[in-house]
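Project channel, design review

CF: Before we commit to the Solitalea canadensis constructs, I'd like one complete example in the thread so the newer folks can see what an input/output pair looks like. Taking Outer membrane protein beta-barrel domain-containing protein.
RD: sounds good, go ahead.
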Amino acid sequence: MNMKKALLSLLIIIPFLSFSQEKQKISVGVVISPSLTNIRGTNFLPKYYEKTLGYLIGASFNYTINNTISLQTDLSFERKGAVLNVEGTNSQGAYEGQGFKAHSNFDYLTIPLLARATFGSKVKFFINAGPFVGFLISQKETTKASGFPTSKIDYTSLYQCLDAGITAGVGLSVPMNERFSVSLEGRNNLGLVDINKYSGSVMTNSTNFLIGVVYHL
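CF: and here is what came back for Outer membrane protein beta-barrel domain-containing protein:
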């Protein structure tokens, strides 16, 4: 009878031990980032459109496969875009017309799927790369001109819902204690899909400077 009880207890305990070990492979976190963004293509020529500041905020998930390799994904709200800055004077300073600044903002729900390689013992360095998809939430253009009210127009219907491309980044992770760590990462997201519905091409690009707090389950 005692042997049966011992075997029964062991059968009950083993799944919990296995689950506990699996949990050590998983980490979750929150991440924020200022971003440097621009839009490429025939409708956003570099001659006229400049890079602008954006931002990202989201949640991260990492699954460790072995001591080096893991899978990383995020679910993030990301603002991408570009700015058109038209001066009211020419290079000689002569007045040529009313100057204005137009911000084209693309708001996305972004999901990358990255393979990550990690090196080091206490402070860990990592590189990761993989594809991303983005789902367009809205596209608005805000125009500001001196002496005129600010104009904001919604152009979401002119663009495809889906964006996709390649993501790559490098960073480091610093442990705070057994459960928490802080991560820093530089990451570039190169859009490869023409998101314009009509004539001309439009593609996204953003560089993130990610700061994350990670909890190891």
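RD: helpful, thanks. Strands lie at 26-40, 49-50, 52-64, 69-86, 100-119, 124-144, 151-154, 162-175, 180-191, 203-216.
CF: The chain has one domain: 26-216.
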